[in-house]
Structure formats: structure tokens, C-alpha cells
Amino acid sequence: MTQFATATRFQPVREVEAYWDALRAGRLVPRRSDIDPRGIERALEFAFVLERIAPGLGRLRIAGSHLTELMGMEVRGMPLSALISADSRNAMSDALEEVFAGPSKVELVLRSDKAIGKPALEARMVLLPLKSDLGDITRVLGCLVASGQTGRAPRRFDIVDTEITPLLGDARVFDQEVPDVVPSPAPSRPVGMAESQTRFEPGPAPYLRLVKTDHSE
Description:
Order of helices and strands: HHEEHHEEEE
Distance between the termini: 12 Å
Strand order of the largest sheet: 2-1-5-4-3-6
Number of strands: 6
Radius of gyration: 17 Å
């Protein structure tokens, strides 16, 4: 019963993950240009698109209203770590590098403790790698859902648990062997998912630490 209640509260995370997996269609990862907000319409307020700007650091290019509510301000252009407590930012950096360099799918169990004007919050976040228009894995489709009353903003979260799923053994075909199918021009997208195109030059490959944890609800 508890597992069912948890699944219901964090259903948008599962919807975004299922949409991303359908876009893969056997590829290693889908492209940023494959994303159509109509495919995740019910989860749009919880979704975000992230750009890698340095090893272990990602900037929010697009963010739903739920993230704005949690921070009490517009979060586009901010690092994702702004939503994470200082004690958990190294873990957040490691998780992001697993997403980009693995590549891997990462799910985080988050918690924001009770304080004056701030009820306790539980949250889930999923980070799903995407290719940029240049073909490198420097984008993320993400979803963050916090359960409970937000209270006084900003709210920041501790990372309680991390589940990492490497993708290399999961793809049916590899991008270097079979080119990605270039999608047909799509209808114009809602303004909420539009972003300016910026060329990103990746820096040197970072040192990676393999994170292995058991996920538990």
C-alpha cells in the first residue's frame, strides 16, 4: 500500500521516464530535438531541460512551474545544484557526470527537512541523458516532483539515495554503427519548451567515481 501511494505521488517522474524511453527506440539516447512537450503534457510543470556547462555542473535551460515554486523565483539559467543542499552538492555533481559520461539514467531520492515555515518534503528526481544538435551528450531531460506543502521558499534538498542505471548494455543498436534517424520538421512547439541554441565545447574528461547504491522507497 505504501509503495502504491509513493508511485501515485511521483507519477510525473514515471511519465517523463517512459516518454524518454519511447523516444530512444533502441538508440543509446534520444536527441534534444526529439522532445515534444505535448508528449509529457501532464508532467510538464515538473519537467526541465539541463545543459552541461562544466564537469559535474548543469544549467537549467527550461524549467516547469513546480521548480519555480520550490525556489520562489525563476530558475532558468540557474545551476541545478541551486535546488540541492550544500552537503549534497558533491553527490549531485557525481550523479550528473554519471548521466553525461556513462551515459546513465539516474534517479534520486530527495528530502527537505522541516524548519520554521517549511514543512518536511519528500521528492524524486530523474535525470535522463540527451544528445545536443552537435551529437554530444550534453543535455538532460529531467523531472523533479516534491510531495507536500512547499511552505516558505526557497526549498533545498538533501540526496538520500541514488540509483544509477548504465545505458550502454541497454541499447539495441549503437549510434556509431547506425546513424540516428533525423526527425521530420515538427510543428512549432509551445513557448514553454523553447530555448536558444548555444554551441557547447566540452572540457577535458573528468575523473569518474562509480556510485553503487541500493534504491529503496
